[in-house]
Amino acid sequence: MRYKIFSVILITLIISGCTKIKGEFAYKKLIEDKYKRADGLLEFDKNEKINWVYVFKDLKDIYNINVALLKKELVWVDIATRTEKISRSNNIIYGIIENLSDGTYKIIISHSDTLIDEKEFVIYSEQEEYYKYEND
């Protein structure tokens, strides 16, 4: 009986110690004052500068987090990667979206080989088409 109680307590401690790292994306345009939650597929004009953040919740330790920017071609192509250290007192990763060509991109947040989150977005340009009319 003692063995079963000890096993249950041990399993409970192990499970509570292996909490999943969670958070959420938010973004703001240069002219905006507040960040907005990044829900759904985001679309940004090629000429805009977008600040984004990923805010982690309920961190219990220090983690090395991988941040990757990928572009969709025939397959997802790695554009940029970096590593950020986060903790309870430093729980936000900052980034900027700028100078990207038209296309579909995604930001991936991961720890070790575990995906934490990802956010897909589209960069577009509003180019007006000019037509030449011939005078008859």
Written overview of the protein:
The protein is mostly beta strands. The protein has a single domain (20-124), classed as Coagulation Factor XIII, Chain A, domain 1 (Distorted Sandwich), CATH 2.70.50.30. Helix content is 12%, strand content 51%. The chain has one helix and nine strands, in the order H-E-E-E-E-E-E-E-E-E. It has one helix at 2-17; strands spanning 22-29, 36-37, 42-45, 50-57, 63-72, 76-86, 92-97, 103-111, 114-124. It has a five-stranded mixed beta sheet, with no helix packed on it. Strands 2-1-4-7 form a four-stranded antiparallel beta sheet, with no helix packed on it. The longest helix has 16 residues, at 2-17. It is globular. The model is unreliable at 5-17 and 128-136 (pLDDT under 50).
